[in-house]
Amino acid sequence: MDYTHPSAVNSNAEFYCKHELPFVMGTTGGDRAKLTETVRKSKVPAIIAPNMAKQIVGFQAMMEYASATFPNLFAGYRLEIKESHQKGKADTSGTAKAMVGYFNKLGLEFTPDEIVMVRDPAIQKNEMGVPEEYLSGHGWHTYRLTSQDGTVQFAFTHNVNGREIYAQGTLDAVAYLHEKVANGVKGRVFSMIDVLKST
Amino acid sequence: MDYTHPSAVNSNAEFYCKHELPFVMGTTGGDRAKLTETVRKSKVPAIIAPNMAKQIVGFQAMMEYASATFPNLFAGYRLEIKESHQKGKADTSGTAKAMVGYFNKLGLEFTPDEIVMVRDPAIQKNEMGVPEEYLSGHGWHTYRLTSQDGTVQFAFTHNVNGREIYAQGTLDAVAYLHEKVANGVKGRVFSMIDVLKST
């Protein structure tokens, strides 16, 4: 299980493959095409998963399905995205940015810089109700869609406190990988979507 | 466009078919299998849609996709469903009941009688914030999923005030049917999903 640093992604993967160690790569960044290529040329299977939270990955897959199947379903609607994370997280959530792409296909005009980022612990605690013990580690997202005349509102929320959901997902990924190894699978890359479909 | 009464569904459809009048059936109830059969044997196309709200039908389709593709994704989670409608609506929302089926497949234990129905205008106005002018006509639904240890929460909400969303959907259905008639389509039944996919 690799949860290291973007700068180590490719060299670590080369090490695992060279030593025939099947691996779960939870680290983001690095050269992703090269990462896949390294596994494909190796004798091991690997799971490459920038997000280990199964339920969130599943929700993203639902949105991807909707955006591909019902383009412009929400044409004319107004979108608001708000995401709150611990103070140290400087960049916008990658999940929120991925969601913007799906919402665009659903007919909503929105750019990633319109995402409202909350990083202030006082606002998180007092206005949003993030529990004190999770101010240092949480990911709360709300996507709100409002019809042009204001009579219809949809809202999708996923609030994660702590890291339990990622630990659970990692265990499921390891179990999935173990089964692939047992079946002699080599040089193949799997995603969390594969893990989800198997459970 | 037929928005009448469950008891009139089948006789009305027979009348439309006999007189070769393409129709949009927004009325629920009646013998649905017989309704489909009547259209299939006729020389007209028809759209049969128990729910005309395109975005809600689309959201249901997303849930159906998830429940078929990722069974048990939310195993171990706790589900709460709350739906609020105008005082006169005696039965539980059909949409909420359909959603229970999808949630069950996603691994959530829940029966339709656990749906919390709100019909008290005082609660709707003061606790939920339903605007005064829509106390007599609204449909607010919230589905809340909480992980066993309480660290993860998902919520899906669709709040509809008045009937504008249904009027819009009906217009889209009529435009879709018009195109089918122009193309000489006969004896075929379409759904709102077909209308959604075409836009």
Outline the biggest β-sheet of chain A. Answer: 4 strands, mixed
Provide the low-confidence segments of chain A as ranges: none
By oligomeric state, this entry counts as: homodimer
Kindly state the number of beta strands of chain A. 7
Strand content of chain A: 15-25%
- Please report the number of helical segments of chain A: 7
Helix percent band of chain A: 40-55%
For the largest interface, the chains and their residue counts are: A-B, 38 and 38 residues
**Radius of gyration of chain A using CA atoms only:** 19 Å
Strand line-up of the largest beta sheet of chain A? 4-3-5-6
Mean pLDDT of chain A: 95
What pattern of helices and strands is seen along the backbone of chain A? HEHEHEHEHEEHEH
Between the first and last Cα atoms of chain A, what is the distance in angstroms?
A: 20 Å
Shape field of chain A: globular
Secondary-structure content class of chain A: alpha/beta
Write the layout of secondary structure elements.
Two copies of one chain form a homodimer.
Chain A: H1 9-18, E1 23-25, H2 32-40, E2 46-48, H3 54-69, E3 78-85, H4 94-105, E4 116-118, H5 121-128, E5 138-146, E6 152-161, H6 164-182, E7 189-190, H7 192-198
Explain the overall architecture.
Two copies of one chain form a homodimer. Chain A has helices at 9-18, 32-40, 54-69, 94-105, 121-128, 164-182, 192-198, and strands at residues 23-25, 46-48, 78-85, 116-118, 138-146, 152-161, 189-190. The first copy, chain A, is 41% helix and 19% strand. Chain A is α/β, with parallel strands linked by helices and 199 residues long. The longest helix of chain A is centred in the C-terminal third of the chain and has 19 residues, at 164-182. In chain A, strands 4-3-5-6 form a four-stranded mixed beta sheet. In chain A, strands 1-2-7 form a three-stranded parallel beta sheet, sandwiched between helices. In chain A, helix 1 runs parallel beside helix 2 and helix 3 (54-69) runs parallel beside helix 4. Chain A is globular, with a radius of gyration of 19 Å. The mean pLDDT of chain A is 95. The A-B interface holds A 53-55, 58-59, 61-63, 65-66, 69-75, 77, 147, 149-162, 164-165, 196-197, 199 and B 53-55, 58-59, 61-63, 65-66, 69-75, 77, 147, 149-162, 164-165, 196-197, 199. Strand 6 (152-161) of chain A pairs antiparallel with strand 6 of chain B.
